[in-house]
Amino acid sequence: MSVKMPPIDEALMTHREEIVAALRRIVPGEGVIDGEREMRPFESDGLTAYRQLPMVVVLPSTTQQVSDVLRYCHEHNIKVVPRGAGTSLSGGALPLGDGVLLGLSKFSRIREIDFENRVAVVEPGVTNLGISNAVAHRGFYYAPDPSSQIACTIGGNIAENSGGVHCLKYGMTTNNVLGLEMVLMTGEIVRIGGRHLDSGGYDLLGVITGSEGLLGVVTEITVRILKKPETARAVLIGFPTSEDAGACVGRIIGAGIIPGGMEMMDRPAIHAVEEFAHAGYPLDVEALLIVELDGGKAEVDHLIDRVEAIARECKASTCRVSQNEDERLLFWAGRKAAFPAVGRISPDYYCMDGTIPRAALPLVLSRMREMSEKYGLQVANVFHAGDGNLHPLILYDANVPGELDKAEAFGSDILRLCVEVGGVLTGEHGVGVEKRDLMPEMFSEIDLNQQQRLKCAFDAQGLLNPGKVFPTLHRCAELGRMHVRAGKVAFPDIPRF
To answer: How confident is residue 488, by pLDDT bands cut at 50, 70 and 90?
Structure first.
C-alpha cells in the first residue's frame, strides 16, 4: 500500500482478545466480527487500491450501543473508524489494523416523515434513494442524488458532503440537512439543529457535514424533503469539441439560467455509457451535455428554447429534448451508469474528484489531454459541469507493473491543476487518504493547524478516523492546548508523547 497509515500499536494488539470480549458485552449476538475471513468485506471502501483488515468490526444497532462502544474505546485509547455503506471513493472508511471499524448498517430505519414541515427523520444506514422512495407517494423527494444513491447511505453522505447531478440547483448534502444526533468520542450524545431552517450561533451543522468521520458518529439525521417540480425535461446536446461544450456551460449559467442539473461527458465516456445503458446518446460527437430544466410548464418550455439557442451559438451539432418522463429518466439513467459502464472497457479505473471555476473548464480539458499523452493512460471524463465538479476516470490495468503508480501520479497532477486554476481538491468524494498528502497544495501549515484545532475540540485524543485528511496529524497538545509560560511547559519532568 503506497499510502502510509499510522503505525500499528503492537502493545494494544496484545490485548485484542480482551478488547473483543468487552465489545461483545456491549454489542451482544452477531454485533461483533473478529474472524479474518469474516472481516474481509470491510477491508476497503470504494477506493479498492488500498486494503487493510481492521482489528475488529462492531455493528451496533442503537445509539446507546454506539455511545458505550466509543466511551470504552476512549477510556482504553483505541482508534475508531466509522463506516457507512463503504461506497467512499477516497479511502475515507479504510480500516486501521489496530482500530475498531464501527459499521452503521443496522441503523436502517426511517423514524418519521413530517410532510407538513417537509422533513424526514432517518437513521444513517438508510440509503439515499430510500428517502425519495419513502416519500414519492406524496409527490416529494430528497434532492441530493449521487450516482451511487441506490447503495450509499445518508450517514456517508453527511461524512463526505455528497452532491449529485441535481446539486447545481438544489444544493449539496449540507444544504439539505437540518439537524442530527451525534455521539462524541467520549460517548456523549449531542443534538445539533432541528426541524428549523437555520439557528443562531456557530454553524456546527456545517462543520460536521463533510467532516469525514473525524468529529463524531452520526446516529440520526433530519433532512429536508422537496415537492417534485410540476415539469422536468432534459436536453441532450452534442458538440464537436469538449471546449465548445465547456464554453456552452459558462454561457448558460452566465445567462442567468440555473438548470436542475447539467452534466457533461466526453467521447470515451459517451461510447461506454451508450453501449451499457442504450440511452440514445449520439455517438458522432466529442462531448455531450445533459441539461435539465424544471419548474412550471411555461417556464420550462421558455428555458429550453433559450438553452437551444445558446447551444447553437456554441457550435452544437445535435440537440434532442426529452418528450416524456420515461425518456427523461433514460437520459439520466445513462449518466448515472457512467462509472460501471467505464468499468466494462478497462480492467481498472481510478475515479478522481476535483472542482474548478466553470470558466476554466476548456483549459483544464486541454491540459488533461496533454497529461493523458504524458502518462500513456486514457481518461474518460464525466463532470457535474454546472458547478465545475470533475470526475475524470483514469483507465489502467493493475496487473501491469507500475500502472497503478502512473494512475496515481496522473490523478495527483489533475488535482494540482484544479488548485492551480482556482479550484479545490475535492467536490464531494472527500479527502480521505487519497488526497491527504496533497492538502499542502491548497492549504498553508497555518490553515491545516487551525483545522486540526477544530478536530481537537471534538476529539482531543485523535482517536476518530486518524490517518485521514491531514498529511501530518499533530497531537492536540502540540497545537496549543498545553499552556506554555516563558518557554517552559508545566511539569517538564513528566514524559510526553
So the answer is: low
